[in-house]
Amino acid sequence: YGWIKTSPDKFFSGHVSWFDPWDINNYLAAIRWGQNTKHFLYENLFTTEITKPFPIYFIYTLTGIVLPSVNLALLYHGLSMITGPFLLWIIFRNILYFISNRTTAFFTLFLVCFGGGFGGLDISMTGLTFTGIWQKPHEIIALGLFLESLIGFTRLNNKTSVYKRWLLRVTLVISLILYPFKIINYAIITGSWILLSWRTSDRVTLIKEWLVSLVFSAIILFSYTNKFSQSGFFSLLLNRYEAVNFIDVLIGYGFIIPLLIIGFIINPRINKLQQWLIVWITTTLILTAFPFGWSRLYLSGLFFPLSLLTLIKLEILMKQQRLIMVIFVFILIPLSTYFIFYQRINAVNQTDNSWMYMSKKKQLGLKFIETQKADGVLANYILSNQVPKLTGKHVYLGHLIQTPKAEEKYEKLMRFYQKEMNDNEACMFLRGNKINIIVFEDSEIQKKYSQSCL
């Protein structure tokens, strides 16, 4: 739709992301890296510092290697369309593990995929629901594998084959490589299942598998994170996300919370699986309250057990008051998703949005940069964020999380463009940061330095 609506004097960036477009550009840059270098390991293009390539965003680099001449945006959105059904399948098959009624299961599937929030009030807290996950293929895969390994643990018994056990272990490790912090809630949530199953004959099997899975995962994660800390992406480990408070959660989950309360009033009995879902939900919410820089990321996927438990408790009401449940599940609870979709469509008409569109003049400039042998580009932040995907070049500052010491570099970048440096200081700045190409936009033309080192 964005391509169709692009005005003749503009160039479309390839995506209409209403939040964190800088991250989408990063994933597109990883695809570009695979296309250009044919390397599986990705080098941080959002810094001009010398860094070692590392196996991160490998789904994107591999895609670029396999399809070297296909448009980046088409590849990225195509990946979402391919991986999306995988997550849908994981969600639905695990819903059927808890809910035998197909109608209720389909209601739950819709609620998990599209539910959450009071209209547009929670659009800054996309991690609470699945809204943001559907547009990020690596998150789709990571969450799908994590859900499968977590719920798969509850299916283990004395008769489970060695093959299936190892399959669950590998599934867990792959998901944790993408989100290593989730090993904590995996350990707690699966540990609670052992306690709930303590009086069964499967107790010893569950304890052994729990220990083997955690030790196996911990060894691989320790090695991976150790190498990660030495790579050009180490700044990702230092990032601190905005903390989540109680109001954020209430707004983000919206109408589903009172529905869950009503469900417990109507149907107060709980079996072992429902007890486990309650532990899953409460454990996750408690972990988000800890002062970790990444604690809010625990919320990813929590809408699954929350929706599942809600529909399980309301299954009686669904049979008696089908119309009321249809209104809640298909109209009221997904309001934020509908609002976000409307906002993204409406954003296409905002041709002054520099994250979505750029002038043809700027596009020509970037094509010129792409043809140059020199590397190391300096430009304003918004343009720098798009340079790697459009040219394959490294930039001085292109991502406030992935660029090492981003805040410090942003201050220096602003000083340079506002001509607060003298010529000698500017030369030292450029040479010290291996900058060989400088982009001056029209508003910055009058602030050029002397040509001595530019």
TrEMBL record:
TM annotation in the entry: 54-75, 82-99, 105-128, 176-198, 210-226, 246-266, 273-292, 323-342
Alphabetized UniProt keyword annotations: Membrane, Transmembrane, Transmembrane helix
Tagged with keyword Transmembrane helix: yes
Keyword Membrane carried by entry: yes
Protein name: Glycosyltransferase RgtA/B/C/D-like domain-containing protein
Lineage: Bacteria, Candidatus Roizmaniibacteriota
